[in-house]
Amino acid sequence: MQIKKLKVYQIIEATCSDVVSEGLGISHIKTDEYKPLTGFILGVLPGETFLAKITRVKSNHFLGVVLPINEIPDEWVGATHKRSDICHDIWSLFNISPLRIKTLCNIFTFCGSCKMLHMSYENTLFFKKKWLTTQLERNHVPYPEIKIIESPRKTKYRNHVQIHINKLEQRGFYAPYSYTTRQFPEHGCLLFDQEMVDQNFPVKLKLEKCVRARIDYIDNKSSIWSLHSTEEKNETFTYTVEYPEHSKTFITISNDSFFQTNTSIIPLWLEELEKITGMFIKDNQKTKILELFCGFGFISRMISYSQDIDVLGIDILSTRDLGKNKIENEKYTPSVTIHKFKENYIQQDLCFLDKIKEDSKERIKIFQPDLIILNPPRSGFIPEQLNFLFKEIFNLTYKNPVIYSSCNGATFARDAACLRQNGYEIDEITLLDFFPWTSHYEIIALFHKI
Fold first, then answer.
1. Is 404 in a helix, a strand, or coil?
2. Which of 370, 405, 369 is nearest to 280 (CA)?
3. Picking from 8-12, 74-78, 310-314, 431-435, which range would have the lowest pLDDT averaged per residue?
4. 50 touches 72 (CB < 8 A)
5. pLDDT 10s digits, 239-255
């Protein structure tokens, strides 16, 4: 029998065995007629047999999306099932998993943004925890019981979106694995308050290819700019975060600055960090925190509203860029102001920490932190550079705790293994659902030297 290679846009019948990271169902074609036989399909659940449209073919796997029943080609002939065997009113499913619920959005498989709207919120957390434990076990990292913190807002939580616009003036996100704009559903996107954005959408931007929209849910305001325009680069936006307790903090950022995308859970995230840092407060002494990947010092400056700390921050931003961002609270005065933060800041690309200047290296040694906070981007802290921190800068003398906040379970587990090689074990670990209905989540872990 001649083995055929699968092709893009081909319709195949497959069965899902599990939901893996990225929210995709790992699936297998039953026939040996084609290769590869294993794929990752959006919109299916364990045990389901279905039709899917292939969107990409790699050497050892393929990617695809479950097929809507109105897209089944007339000439399709099932390998083991007939068209009449389909038992779902939207998607081409031949049997339905008990995990499947009536989705809040019938077009989520076409949109490419949400990945898990076909299961209950509780089950999304189950799978996220499962993916995190799988990553840790794969990297041989022991871990205690994982605490889970839900997002206060389950829908309309995202405060920063890039909206694509096609030639028909339709607004939406890119479809999965493509650059085709899929229009938002009639009921509105579940990830952000589309109605608020639509009400404030500038007429002059209706044919822009891509716009940036920022939303402040506390004070009900939004702003929209043409992406990468001069106007956008020169503008700022102010978010409101309800922290510390019974107060509001106003964070003004430039548009090229990163800010967490779910302001409803930020207070819970900060409280978790504050609880951990509070464990190391010394009587009549400032707690010294070395904050790596500090950005404009958001974590340490927010914690300093309730704790008396000294901070040495390290990141790629210039001191000029630091000044573009403001943090102001209506009731409290922080122990770390922007002026103090600038004085205790080292500009250094942490992807190349081994290139750090000798005087900066000496500043870190002299600072002698009581704890280290790591808050890297999705790529994590490159193990070679993490090793350089402990072995070359501290000369293996640093024995205090490390707090790691991460938005990527895979790179977190990789870095946790590196920390373990340097004598650290996870003492506490929390999964925070910063991104409901997507495959992403945030992690906070406390590492102790053993």
1. strand
2. 370
3. 74-78
4. no
5. 999 999 999 999 999 98
In the chain, what percentage of residues exceed pLDDT 70? 100
Kindly report the backbone phi and psi dihedral angles of residue 284, in degrees, each rounded to the nearest multiple of 5, phi listed first.
60, 25
> Backbone phi, then psi, for 8, in 5-degree steps?
-60, 140
Least confident of 132-136, 213-217, 260-264, 316-320: 316-320
pTM to 2 decimal places: 0.94
Residue 233 is which amino acid? Answer: K
Return d(Cα 347, Cα 329) in angstroms, integer: 26
Rounded to whole angstroms, how far apart are CA atoms 266 and 353? 29
DSSP state of 262: B
Q: What is the set of domains in the chain, with CATH numbers?
A: 4-100 (2.40.50.140), 122-154+262-449 (3.40.50.150), 160-241 (no CATH)
- Indicate whether 351 pLDDT > 80: yes
Give the residue carrying structure tokens 């009449």: 84
Q: Are 404 and 411 in contact (CB under 8 A)?
A: no
Specify the pLDDT at position 82: 86
User: Which of helix, strand or coil describes residue 14?
Assistant: strand
Query: Cα separation of 429 and 142, whole Å?
Result: 11
Alpha helices in 112-159 (DSSP H): 121-138
CB 350 within 8 A of CB 327: no
Contact 392, 354 (CB under 8 A): yes
Label residue 133 left, alpha or beta by phi (over 0 means left) and psi (-120 to 50 means alpha): alpha
Judge whether 385 and 352 are in contact, CB under 8 Å. yes
Are 69 and 88 in contact by the 8 Å Cβ rule? The answer is yes
Between 121-138 and 409-421, two packed helices, what is the crossing angle to 10 degrees? 30
Q: 35-92: per-residue pLDDT in tens?
A: 888 999 999 999 999 999 999 999 899 999 999 999 998 877 777 888 889 999 999 9
Non-local (6+) Cβ contacts of 84 within 8 A are: none
Nearest to 92 by CA among 117, 72, 107: 72
Q: What is the DSSP string of 295-324?
A: TTTHHHHHHTTTS-EEEEEEES--HHHHTT
